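Margin note from the TA: students keep mixing up input and output lines. Inputs are the sequences; the output is the structure of the whole complex. Example:
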Amino acid sequence: MNLVAQQQAAPLVSPEILEDNFVIFRLRAPEAQSVKLGGTMNSDYSELEMKKNEESIFEIKIGPLIPDIYVYTFKVDGVTALDPSNNVVVRDGSHIENRLMIPGKLTDLYDVKDVPHGKVTATWYLSSILGMTRRCLVYTPPGYGKSLDSYPVLYLLHGGGGDEEAWISRGRANYILDNLIAQGKAKPMIVVIPNGNASITSAPGDTPLELLLQQSWTQMAAAGAMVGDKIPASLVNDLIPFIEVNYRVKANKQNRALAGLSMGGYQTQLTTNLYPEKFDYIGVMSMGLYSMFGNYDKEQHVAQLKALQKTNPKLYWVGVGKADFLYESVLDLRKLYDEVGFEYEYRESEGGHSWNNWRMYLTELAPRFFN
Amino acid sequence: MNLVAQQQAAPLVSPEILEDNFVIFRLRAPEAQSVKLGGTMNSDYSELEMKKNEESIFEIKIGPLIPDIYVYTFKVDGVTALDPSNNVVVRDGSHIENRLMIPGKLTDLYDVKDVPHGKVTATWYLSSILGMTRRCLVYTPPGYGKSLDSYPVLYLLHGGGGDEEAWISRGRANYILDNLIAQGKAKPMIVVIPNGNASITSAPGDTPLELLLQQSWTQMAAAGAMVGDKIPASLVNDLIPFIEVNYRVKANKQNRALAGLSMGGYQTQLTTNLYPEKFDYIGVMSMGLYSMFGNYDKEQHVAQLKALQKTNPKLYWVGVGKADFLYESVLDLRKLYDEVGFEYEYRESEGGHSWNNWRMYLTELAPRFFN
């Protein structure tokens, strides 16, 4: 009788990080014909064939990898499977993948270090505009509980197909803030992460069964993403008041930041265009001109940008990777901003539409907020 | 360009719950030779062969299932794979599985209902006894934030191989409390869920990389489970004081409960044997006499039980399923308790060593606490 033995994984080591940052992945699969490795560390997210050895273990060695966080899965005879030797699994919407962390300078900002940790709380609030009680995650910085101070707030938005857990599970926003605050590089701030899908209350496991039985969570996410203009209204009229009543918050423009990636970058633009008096710090990650969506009205957009410019936001930041599939749309956005004379700061990085960029952008943006 | 389309799952419906509570599982797998269904809804956790149709979709229909929560995975040519059509995935330690909820009376207590929701917070505390900063989850009931009241506290312990997230992800403890409190069946209470593995700081994704690179999380869980007596000391000397300083808590025996399952049931027994003055409500789930572990000292145990009896706990509850692999050990425990004249309440259910029982036990126990 052993309560633990039954839960032990096979003694196979995977992934094995070698000293030179090459990595070996292994899967024991005697009955499988083919095992491939897919993941964000492969260029173009290509699937690499693994080789079966005499012990029926499929293996592949890749690298060297730049120190960062990657996610991967195996494809076993065409079906996606997690690595049973690695129980660190992260989720972004429907994407459930194994995590691989290669230690290094950037990873140090994402890791659980020996510094004071803030709290991450899942809480529910009423959205009158969306007609539902919704879940959001709230990071309160170290010391918040014992302090009498009020804090600035960053509202942080996820991308299409994601949910309120993505910036924690994939984005490591809480640990990034812990580490930046400990190093004196970012001001202690509250970070609020809502669900950006207008027809969804919450992450899949926290969605009421009644809703899930009507429609799959993925279908709801797809539907909800199309109702973008209700998200800005709900953010400003439901969520911000909820946070400002329930947390010790500096409730003014100077102490409010809004940032988002991809769909959340679109929502960041929409929100600040519609409510120019609300945020002094604005970060648009991996999202350009939204003329690709229906009902785009350039004249209106230009008027909104001029109104926003008049409120003199302290930072309007646009960042994108050179390989991002939305790169061209960012060129279009910059062209418009330059045409209008709208002031912004531009950050171009390597890489594409990826969490590797979004995490890095947060490490660069958070220190800029509330100065 | 569609930010959402790229994230959409295939339109296959799986699992499909039919009106009579039969369920069809489906997986498209043109390259696979064999797909099996494993899960807690199968007797003996057996793996059932699925049948390939002309569209290369493997299918199986099972049932009727008793309304409850089940978890399942597929085995594709011998390798475990998640259901890509179902993005509700739950984790208990290294076990990462799809969730299937069949609506019904019991499930209603586990689901996200239209009632006020408490908050779930991940927070870190210093354990001087274990020499590390550790993560725990804290449920605060609806109204806690606005109230000036102090609350009773339930300390809730997970099983071997699990971690501080298991009672939330698999156990639905927060929604169980939300629903029982809304129905007036349980007193509003705080629930504190620590990590019960003495050598681990936290759940896999929240464990520092430095630790993970030394040893796999699963190995640490196995090692940590063997150092059971440090967990009671840390619970009483590190965690309880942390909670009582940082939350509005009724800090006395009458308002403290301790319950745990399997390894956590062992730790519940150890803690209340070693610290008989601490808890008035005690729940031991799926764990019997721990004479199977080394260093068992019957004489000492009897003396401890007599001392505990003298403190007159209001409830000492022991529950187990008839098919539990630890059932015999519970018979041994009852024999000893009866021999000593130690008062306890016994609950025997159908089923085995499973979350189906542990969730149900919590719905029965929580209403008994703090009356």
